[in-house]
Amino acid sequence: MTKWNTKCRFFNENYACDTLTSESYKSCEECKFSSLYSKKILIIKLGALGDVLRTTPLAEAIKKKYPDCLIYWLTEESSAELLENNPYIDKILTYNLDNILRLQQEKFNILFSLEIDTPTTLLANLIKADEKFGFYFDNGSTSCFNESAEEYLETAFLTHLKLKNRKTYQEMIFQACCLPYNKEEIFLELTDTEKKYAEKFKQEKNIKENDKLFGINFSSSSRWPSKAWAKEKIIELIEKMQDNYKIIILGGPEEHEKMPQLIEELKNKGINVLANNPKNTIKEFSSIINLCEKIIVTDSLSLHLATALKKPIIALFFSTPPWEIEDYEIVKKLNSPLLEKYFFTNYYSDELANSILVEEVIQALENQ
CA-CA distance, 189 to 79, in Å (whole number)? Predict the structure, then answer.
């Protein structure tokens, strides 16, 4: 009977690994290149996109604590692109019925369950693992597998605790997983394909090598319109910066209507700016961010993408907690004086949107 080495990190249940194919081995028993993993670990972190990205430091920390471990990461299909080519993640599984059934049949040494709502907590109950950290479904509510995860759960649920908290998201997630946090960085890998896309963008937009590119992302999703900076402020900033920088307006699918409107208003003032395609994939969008010398953003996915790409960032916070953002010594935070008044409101307010002045942003850029 042919024997397969399922303890090898290169083992693939669907087809022969590259070594078996290239060396023409008949079974894993003959292989001289097998690499046994020490522990089999599952991370469950589905979304949102920004939260998945800023959870990536966890994989590096796990590899530090458990050398030669095998890391599976279960995530939403929309988030999988952010995890591709991460050297600390061995298998990316998308959240679908096939993989839910599969995971219930596999055995893990450790589970890190990092979602606090159903149905993910229900799945955490069903995973077979020797140790479990994070969150599970408990008779209609969410409970913690371990005591050190309680602070994250309580802070997520209770606004008054979120206001008092001064730990970053990464600090709380690492604490929930009982792992030491040493400011491991957010990981995002741009492939040659994305880099070529950025080069094509430069050619099409006539961007020269000595051009100083400044990216502005004004994202505020339909869920969080309170994160928005006033359009008049954005225009005023661009008017004052156009002589020193070539401006790129950055946006995704939710900005596909706002971007042309903003660009048209600027054109009416005699100001020409560049813009990415709002239908870009996440990686294509990231490659455009990577072209920029500096970035100004609201609290959005763009903030986390730019942080992963190590870009100097000015981040504007209107209604969400700036203290939860790890600055990695590249993020300068400007907080609205009305932040606590509008903390986690989900509606647009002119008062709030105008509460950070253009002069503050320019001063921050000069000091950065």
Answer: 14
